[in-house]
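#structure-requests
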Amino acid sequence: MAVFTFYKFTLNEPSLKKETFSDFKTGSKLDLKVAQQLNDGGYDDHFGMPKVYNNDIIANHDNILVMTIENNKKKETTIEKKTLTHEHHPFCHVIIDYRDGQNLIAIERNMAFDNKPEKVREILYKALNRLFFRDNLQIDLQPLTKSYNDIWDAINTIRRRYHDRVKKICMDFSSNRNKERKVDSNALAAIIAEISEKTNAKGMVAFQSQGNEEMDLNAIQQDLLNIAEICLNEGEFDLSVHFYSYGVFRYGTDVTAQYGIDQEVIDDFVLLVDAFDMDKERIPLPRWLNNVKDIFHDFDTTAPTIIEPKRGHRR
């Protein structure tokens, strides 16, 4: 099953949405270029050659676009006792739903981009704005998220909405802990924190489920709430909850909208499989996207970037 992270997109000229995305024809490629990063963290088109990301638009109909984006990696292999380096281009799927009332971009979370959809979002944000610049268009992409003050609420939301299970709970100790705070040498957590400081390394206490069983969180509910409060108040420890499918939720951050879909559903849409011939237990891609919108109706985008319309040529 492919897992996607969801973003909301906005154009500074909303009336041009369908015209813009319908121009991206099935079988074509987008000119996805991203400027090289400078030492100060900024970007400059004149600093070396921009990075180019190969891609393929594999379907664009019914106002839904499906494409693949490849990463630029290297891979080592050993042949006749010699280590050789080859180009390696793993890919992920991107779905752009530009139907009325949707405005969703779904980015597959897989190892092609190190399970970090935000990397793909950055590529799309920069490359599409470069592409749209000549038409005085700007696009903004913001993740769908929801904040939770109570870690228990966040965990239960992920378990319920994603039909997921908790496999590990980690408490990380920062090497930048407050040296002025007194350390109780009888406390295991304090000892690990002190060793972390002395070795200039990150220490960790982790509790992991056995096999494929979920941890018995109900047995430690109050303990978990107490640990979460310590982590939040002291700022020297990071608490993370690891799920089998969702990935990692770090306490103090927002829960991001993610949802899984069978690869066959995407394939049916790409191949224009007739509804009569589809597996009756599968939900067609357009309906799956509608369901996602309903499921995450209470999720919001983060504060949007202010888009200033530019004067000039209109398409």
